Amino acid sequence: MNYKKLDIFSPGVFVLLVIIYLIFAQIAFNYHLKELIGININTIYIIFLGLLFYVGGICSSHYLLKNTEFSLNESILEKIFSERNVLLLVMVGILLQVINLLYLGGIPLFSGYLKAHAATRIWLLSYLIFLPSINILIAKYNNKKYYLLFAIGLVLFVFTGYRTTVMAIVISMLITLYYTMDLKWKYLVLSVVAIFVLLLIVGYVAVKSIEWQTWTLSPLQLLFYRAGYTLQVLDKAVLLQGSTHGQLLYNTLTGFFKSTDPRVIVGSTTLGYAHSTTSMIFGPALLDFGLYAMLIQMFFLGVIINFIYRVQRALGNIFVALYAILLAHVLIWIETGPTDLVVLLFFFITLILIGISVKIKKGGV
Q1: What angle is formed at CA 273 by the lines to CA 272 and CA 278, rounded to 5 degrees?
Q2: Among candidates 133, 198, 211, which has minimal Cα distance to 171?
Q3: What predicted TM-score, i.e. pTM, was given to this entire model?
Q4: Which one of 51, 190, 263, 266 is most buried, by most CB atoms within 10 A?
Q5: If we measure between CA atoms, which residue out of 215, 187, 222, 216 comes closest to residue 201?
């Protein structure tokens, strides 16, 4: 069977991974890892309702784009994303992360105190520049020597101790390579296994390095525990719908200018004390505005991600890299939720680039 025909990184992979995440959580509940107790069945119903609206958004987008032709204004992209410009941006992103680590005075991966202060504005700017530029460089100007820059950048972001940024870098690069190179099945499987092991190691080392916490779980148990814990937080969010009155959205949109972490608000609301906590992709909208807001969020997420998917499949070029970045973050949102300004900026930039460089023409029936 030709696995390429399955297109395993289409927007539908999100649904599959949510189900796998729920299975991981159930394993944690079954073994009562750190006294996890399980959730109410109504939370499961709400999750599947959210997935239904996400699929509905994909289907609606597919219907609206039926018989649609995409054409590319190559000259605009060549001016903006010449090889020299993109390579320069990659170097700037790497340099900024080096400056950030020097400013912190150590490696946050090995210190909970340093990690608590690692997400500086320099870090944010570095991530905002490095992630799209390295993916575009590989997608548009694939050269083996550029993989060294990818490895250097990856190591620097591993040093910050933030698992989500490492996930986004490696997953987006895998998706980029999947669409731009003829990856054999064995290499795809090996890549997924390598990513899985890397994330286990980074997550475990980062947790064990937090001086004020004591963990006795193994790396694999920690993976299952995080899924179960996050699902339990969502379970509390279901009972507290509308209680934050838009604070999460406001603090997400103003995150660059304020020091308030939306996930701390999630923790304060659901747990009763200040703690940075995730509540799956469904939690923030539920806490801010209730069930209808969450369903609208999932519907439009399906519409937008499928639209960008169709553009990159038709035109390739830099849109492969941009789709890879967005899909990687949507998959990460399964656990963390959409509370990151930088990801919203990636969506905004991608839609702007499509608007100025892609011609959309409706074909005949």
Answers
A1: 85
A2: 198
A3: 0.93
A4: 266
A5: 222
